[in-house]
Amino acid sequence: xxxxxxxSSGIVYSTDPDFRQEEDAPAEETLPxxxxxxxxxxxxxxxxxxxxxxxxxxxxxxxxxxxxGKKLKTHCGTGGxxxxxxxxxxxxxxxxxxxxxxxxxxxxTKRSG
Length: 113
What we know:
CATH topology of the domain at 33-111: Translation Initiation Factor Eif1
Oligomer: single chain
Order of helices and strands: EEHEEHE
Strand content: 15-25%
CATH superfamily of the domain at 33-111: SUI1-like domain
CATH architecture of the domain at 33-111: 2-Layer Sandwich
Structural class: alpha+beta
Largest sheet: 5 strands, mixed
Number of strands: 5
Shape: elongated
Distance between the termini: 48 Å
């Protein structure tokens, strides 16, 4: 038996005649690369001194963010993850990532850290 619930709102039945369950908000559309204002920075907080390149500021669908993260990790030849709307790439990869993003049309890339 599946443990996933089709309706996770917890509402089963309501006797209130004015009750209307809100539908899920429409998914946020992914902005084109030229409109994305990404920030690339080095982060070592709470990582036992290990350096991680952090890409933040992506606006769009979660699937597109995961796809961008996968492409960046493949380009750098390292591991990483996508968490909380941020892409984490292992190691100090700021130069590689910044150059790759600019070559793909992300003109507003800011390099900080």
